[in-house]
Specification:
The complex is a heterodimer of chains A (130) and B (260). Chain A is α+β, with helices and mostly antiparallel strands and 130 residues long. Chain A has a single domain (2-122), classed as Beta Barrel (OB fold (Dihydrolipoamide Acetyltransferase, E2P)), CATH 2.40.50.140. Chain A has three helices and six strands, in the order H-H-E-E-E-H-E-E-E. In chain A, strand 1 (30-46) and strand 2 (53-59) form a beta hairpin. Mean pLDDT of chain A is 79; it is low at 1-21. With 260 residues, chain B is an alpha+beta fold. Chain B has one domain (63-255): Lipocalin, CATH 2.40.128.20. Chain B has helices at residues 3-29, 71-74, 87-98, 114-118, 252-255; strands at 63-66, 124-129, 132-137, 142-147, 164-170, 173-179, 199-208, 211-219, 228-236. In chain B, strands 4-3-2-1-9-8-7-6-5 form a nine-stranded antiparallel β-sheet. The chains are: A alpha+beta (130), B alpha+beta (260).
Chain lengths: 130, 260
């Protein structure tokens, strides 16, 4: 059990350190002065190049649900770090840190995704910093 | 049931088996040991072993390589070197910086070119034969050819995304001259521009099994008042394989508004 935990931690660190893929300019699309932290239920994962996108339903204080779309790094770096297209699934409850799109629409760039059930960190390969 | 239907069903079944087997093998290839790799007692690749040679005695650059960071992709002048831009280049560089690089070709899924791919952190497989070195880039699923068969650079070339590259050996260093690069390409993600007069000189030296030293010199009198150079390294990526990379999902480009 302990070795499994170590494995998961090492994997998480590797993913965190995985170089991200410079496809487009982060600053052109997202605003690093508008951080976001949201918890919700995953509705869809698009495991595609050049970016993984996932969507999740977030409920606000008044009960309104908004479906947010989040961009991540490319799948190839994630595959090399041990993740697969099944690592995050529709129905998973996740807490997401990231930055909002400049557009003001419910879109963003995810820097960290944590599975609520286990605390496991997923897909921490943002396309920020490019 | 007709014969044709049975045949069709068999084909569907066979195709399903192939798909399942292919996806399993795909995952395994990422950790398959690369043949010909020197090993440490624990089985890991010995990246400090001597650089290999080809049958004709030249340094062998074969392998999957990458630039370990994005530092020089982000800006070839990241080490603070002086980049002597002409007013023409300054104006383009400023426009690209002011618009947060929104017009960078790669943002529209067009590939990088010579210098920005050199600095890119995604893998490239180098294949070497006596008269030709090929770089297969995982990112953008594209390639580049460097001819080492003694041919001259073309005169008045038709501009090309990767230009025209010829290489020659100076001892253990491969010196590559490239001209004819299309003006649309950027030297780096910072947006350092170039004209069609650009002449890139790359000097590659495989220091040991796991490390390639690389120096790039930019000559372009329309964009820079004198040549400037940057040096960095590639690292070998042992025991892995190239992955698919097709720009199939570029939706952010449509859904996010452009700040101009």
């Amino acid at each position: 059990m302990r070795s499994l935990l170590v494995f998961v931690l090492v994997l998480a660190l590797q993913v965190a350190a995985a170089p991200v893929f410079a496809h487009h300019s982060f600053a052109a699309e997202f605003d690093n002065k508008q951080p976001l932290k949201l918890t919700g239920t995953v509705t869809k994962v698009e495991w595609t190049n050049p970016h993984v996108w996932f969507y999740f339903d977030v409920k606000d204080d008044t009960g309104n649900v908004t479906n947010w779309g989040m961009e991540m790094g490319g799948p190839n770096g994630l595959l090399r770090a041990g993740w697969t297209r099944n690592s995050m699934k529709a129905g998973d409850v996740v807490t997401v840190d990231g930055f909002k799109a400049r557009s003001g629409k419910p879109l963003g760039n995810a820097t960290s995704v944590v599975l609520a059930s286990t605390g496991q960190k997923l897909f921490a390969a943002s396309s920020q910093g490019q | 049931m007709s014969k044709t239907t049975v045949k069709f069903q068999l084909r569907v079944a066979l195709a399903s088996v192939i798909v399942v087997v292919a996806s399993a093998a795909h995952a395994q290839w990422l950790t398959l040991p690369t043949p010909g790799t020197p090993r440490l007692p624990d089985g890991k690749a010995n990246l400090n072993a001597p650089a290999p040679k080809t049958a004709d005695g030249k340094p062998d650059f074969s392998g999957i390589w990458h630039s370990p960071s994005q530092k020089y992709l982000a800006n070839l002048a990241a080490d603070g070197i002086q980049v002597p831009m002409t007013p023409w280049a300054q104006q383009i560089f400023k426009q690209r910086a002011d618009s947060n690089g929104i017009d960078r070709p790669s943002a529209s899924c067009l590939p990088h070119s010579v210098t920005d791919f050199d600095a890119h952190n995604t893998p490239r497989k180098v294949l070497q034969s006596p008269g030709l070195i090929v770089m297969l880039y995982e990112g953008y699923h594209t390639f580049r050819q460097i001819f080492t068969d003694g041919r001259p650079l073309p005169k008045d070339p038709e501009p090309a995304w990767f230009g025209y590259s010829v290489g020659r050996w100076e001892g253990d260093t491969l010196v590559v001259d490239t001209t004819g690069i299309h003006e649309k390409t950027w030297l780096d993600d910072a947006g350092h521009p170039h004209s069609e007069a650009l002449h890139v000189v790359e000097r590659f030296r495989r220091v040991n099994f796991g490390r390639m030293d690389l120096q790039i010199t930019i000559n372009d009198p329309k964009a820079y008042t004198k040549p400037w150079s940057v040096a960095f390294q590639w690292e070998l990526m042992p025991d892995t394989e190239l992955l698919d990379w097709v720009c199939e999902n570029n939706k952010y480009f449509d859904v996010l508004p452009k700040e101009r």
